[in-house]
Structure formats: C-alpha cells, structure tokens
Amino acid sequence: MLLQLLVTFTLCTTLPLAHSHYNWSPSSSSAAVAVHQSEWRPARATYYAAVDPRDVVGGACGYGDLERSGYGKSTAGLSTVLFEKGQICGACFEVRCVEELRWCIPGTSVIVTATNFCAPNYGFEPDGGGHCNPPNAHFVLPIEAFEKIAIWKASNMPVQYRRIKCRKEGGVRFTINGAGIFLSVLISNVAGAGDIVAAKVKGSRTGWLPMGRIWGQNWHISADLKNQPLSFEITSSAGVTLTSYNVAPKNWNFGQTYQGKQFES
C-alpha cells in the first residue's frame, strides 16, 4: 500500500501525566551516540499530495490518524531497505536535497518521522518506476515536506539523509485498544531514538509482563488487567529503558490514550 500520511503539526489534547524514571548504562549511552550521530547517506525522494481526507488515517506503522497522533506533515514512507519490517517506525531522519541545483533549495533540510512503508513494485526495475524496490533507499514525503527542500517539479530527487534524535512535545503516549483479556497498546510520540524495540506492562496485581509486537509500534498481550492501574516499561533502539508508573488509572478504558514522561531528546 502506498501512502496515507498527513496533516497538522500539533496535538491539542491534554492527557494525564505519570511519574517515570530512566535506566541508563554505559553501553546504552554508546548505542545512543551511534544512532543519533549517523553520517549522511545517499537516497532519493518523491512526494505525494493527498486529496482525500481519509489520507490522514492509516499507515504501516499503525499510528492511525496522524493529526491526532501529533505527527502532522513531518512524516515519511520508507522503502524496504530502510523500513526494517516496521522496527524503524517512529525514528527521525533529516533529509536534504543534493546535486540537482536547478531544483534544490540551497541550505535547507527537513526533519521527518518514519510513519509508513513504501511498498516495492516489482513490475518495474529499481532504476525505472520501482522507486521503492530493493536495493533503493527511498523516501516518500508529503508535498508540504518535499517543498521545504526542493521545487515540486523536481519529482524524483537525489537526496541525502541521516538518522537524528527525535524531539517531541509532551510525553510518550500509550493508546489502549483490544477487548476482554486481549490488550493492544499503540506507543507513539517517542523522543530520543524514536523507535521501540521492547515493551512491558504491569498491573497493580501483576509483575512485569513482556508484550509482543503486532506490527509497527502496536504491542499486545493476553492478560486480565482490567480494574488495575497500568505501568509501562519501554526500551528504545538506543538501548535506553524508560519506566512509567501508573500511566493509566484503575478505571482505564479501551480506546483511551494516556501519557507518561518522555525520553531525553
């Protein structure tokens, strides 16, 4: 599926805060440096212009309505070699236009969050219409983001990209869905590395329970956690673990979003 990303830069919803703490180790710090100071690498970029209001909803990372999730138009769909089967969802990249001096806007770059997957089209060659085919590193941007670095007539542009720290307003958000004893949690608005590699949940009557990844940044567990305040422990790809206690109150409900503290950015 090709992209459905979009819309507005801020989320105006007030969410309950929770207490949190960070667990750091020297090895985690080294990993963070590797993630956040990556070198510029070559890629290409195209854009899309959404015409259907439904394009603000969806995407292979599971963030749903990108306006409500706070990602706005600062988003990108990534080709297979960059998408890492969804592990990269939530990571942030700086992208700049290079080489095409007719079309590039000098001295500019755009920062985007990975929110979607640009599927390969094997009916075309990678150097033809198959822009997102392996081994291509390719970004598909909303036209609003593309036009910050290049003139729209450029179409398929050579660019450079690098992984950077994510900076987000507010805390990490936990959106609880499911039914009965099936609990699905969307983890979004993550600063620092941006992508989550492990998650645990704890009720007031349980120990820490590991959660499994469904897809993108949706995590799940089968456990009866109703009528218990919920705490979450999440680990980023930088090796940093953040524990947020009593994020959701005892009377939490499916379909609700709760907010914890935030990774350092």
Question: What are the main properties of this structure?
Answer:
265 residues, mainly beta, 9-stranded antiparallel beta sheet, 6-stranded mixed β-barrel, 4 helices, 36% strand, elongated, disordered N terminus, Expansin_CBD
Major sheet characteristics:
9 strands, antiparallel
Overall outline: elongated
Number of strands: 15
Percent helix: under 10%
Instruction: List the total number of helices.
Output: 4
Quaternary state reads single chain
Beta-strand percent range: 35-45%
Subcellular location: Secreted, Cell wall; Membrane
Membrane topology: Peripheral membrane protein
Pfam family, one: Expansin_C
Function: Causes loosening and extension of plant cell walls by disrupting non-covalent bonding between cellulose microfibrils and matrix glucans. No enzymatic activity has been found.
Explain what this protein looks like in three dimensions.
This protein has 265 residues and is mainly beta. It contains four helices and 15 strands. The protein has helices at residues 26-36, 66-69, 80-83, 143-146, and strands spanning 19-23, 41-48, 75-78, 92-97, 110-117, 138-142, 157-164, 173-179, 182-188, 196-202, 209-215, 218-222, 230-236, 241-248, 257-259. The protein has a nine-stranded antiparallel beta sheet, with no helix packed on it. A hairpin with a 6-residue loop joins strand 10 (196-202) and strand 11. The longest helix is centred in the N-terminal third of the chain and has 11 residues, at 26-36. It is elongated. The protein starts with 18 loop residues before the first strand and ends in a 6-residue tail after the last strand. Mean pLDDT is 84; it is low at 1-34.
